[in-house]
From TrEMBL:
It comes from the Bacteria. SUPFAM superfamilies: P-loop containing nucleoside triphosphate hydrolases (SSF52540). Transmembrane segments: none annotated. Pfam families: AAA_21. This is AAA family ATPase.
Length: 384
């Protein structure tokens, strides 16, 4: 479970360190930085997939993703007695992302490319570090990247060895230096990061793939757009907790039953509802009903991830479904860590009633995202 998340220099997140729980809610007003925090988590996951630089390019490049304010705010600036203005920089321009758990931690520092580099919008990876435990230190560091050089510490002897000396500035040591012999811990961390799941694009429009008949195959993990809904539901029924699925549907749609029918040899989701003589197919379901089924398929996966992040899961849902969704999220968090980004007060109240939730409320001052937590957890960034 991730216990700490740290972001610096990314969009409105000038310098944020947050404590995460088994079930974490991130909320706040529009424009407070919720989406930026969601994207920061996603960028960390993209690092393990080798897509970090491409993902930043999709956001407009490093210049568009960097914090646009001053490096620091003076007391006078915060008090409104002095206009916000640039200050003499004490450190290099950078975008930093990191996380840690009780057993492992990872951080990456990206900066501006060399002036002669042909792709000036692409950031360079300047430093990476991976360590055991919640806090980075010299004694628990076991993988380090500085510039093009990567060093790994052997677990048995504690000796350092050069794993690479010519790693490209756009490649991460997480994807290029994970070795089952000398880099086993690095390999384990990479696989854990690759197991993170994100759902923010579950389609329910008239042309959504989930409304069409699908080829049925073993699907323990719902696709990020929900295209394989029928196969995912069938997999839960076959090897997952079918009783929990039935209870989830009953809680949200009393008297209803979810089915997987067949059309020309392909599977399709159907719902039998009270008073109707036949089940309704996926094409006939409302956007809200279909979205709830998609969320249920994601959250009741027979193969729970280390962490699942849901961005505004309440979208398209009727208010009557928000209480059942809160209960579903609470149940699902018993099987894996869940982070929810939401501003739905009804969903938030339902989650609060369930208890055991870590709540982070964001706000913005002088363009900077701030957390309502009284004391931020400690964090140490690797030095360039």
């Amino acid at each position: 479970m991730i216990t700490r998340l740290a972001v610096a220099g990314y969009r409105s997140l000038r310098d944020v360190v947050l404590e995460l729980g088994q079930l974490t809610l991130i909320t706040g007003a529009n424009g407070s930085g919720k989406s930026s925090l969601y994207r920061a988590l996603r960028l960390l996951a993209e690092t393990a997939q080798g897509r970090l630089i491409a993902s930043l390019a999709g956001e407009g490049g490093l210049s568009s993703a960097l914090w646009a304010g001053p490096e620091n705010f003076s007391r006078a600036m915060r008090a409104g007695a002095q206009p916000v203005q640039g200050t003499v920089r004490s450190g290099p321009i950078s975008l930093k992302l990191g996380f840690s758990s009780d057993d492992f931690g990872y951080a990456i520092d990206l900066g501006l490319p060399d002036p002669t580099h042909p792709f000036q919008r692409d950031p360079e990876i300047k430093v990476e570090a991976m360590w055991t435990g919640a806090m980075l230190g010299r004694a628990n560091l076991f993988a380090e990247r500085r510039g093009a050089a990567v060093s790994l510490r052997r677990a048995e002897s504690g000796e350092w060895r050069h794993a690479m000396t010519n790693l490209s500035a756009f490649d991460s040591m997480v994807t290029h230096c994970a070795d089952p012999v000398d880099g086993l811990e690095l390999l384990m961390m990479r696989e854990r990061m690759r197991n993170w799941r994100f759902y923010d694009a579950l389609r329910t429009d008239a042309d959504a793939p989930s409304r069409r008949p699908q080829v049925m195959t073993y699907t323990p993990v719902l696709a990020s757009d929900g295209a394989d809904l029928a196969a995912a539901i069938a997999t839960i029924m076959a090897i997952g907790d079918r009783e929990e699925l039935d209870e989830t549907i009953e809680d949200a749609f009393p008297g209803s039953q979810i089915l997987v029918g067949e059309v020309d040899g392909h599977g399709v989701v159907e719902m039998r509802q009270p008073g109707l003589l036949r089940p309704l197919g996926a094409r006939e379901l409302s956007d809200g009903t279909l979205r709830y089924l998609l969320l249920a398929a994601a959250l009741l996966s027979p193969r729970p991830p280390d962490i699942m992040v849901l961005n505004e899961p309440e979208a398209s849902l009727h208010p009557s479904l928000l209480e059942p969704l809160a209960r579903l999220l609470q149940r699902a968090s018993r099987h894996g860590q869940i982070v929810i980004v939401s501003h739905s007060e009804r969903l938030i109240q339902g989650l609060r009633r369930g208890g055991g939730m870590q709540e982070i409320r964001l706000s913005k001052a002088l363009g900077e995202t701030q957390s309502d937590a009284e004391d931020a957890p400690r964090w140490v960034w690797p030095k360039r």
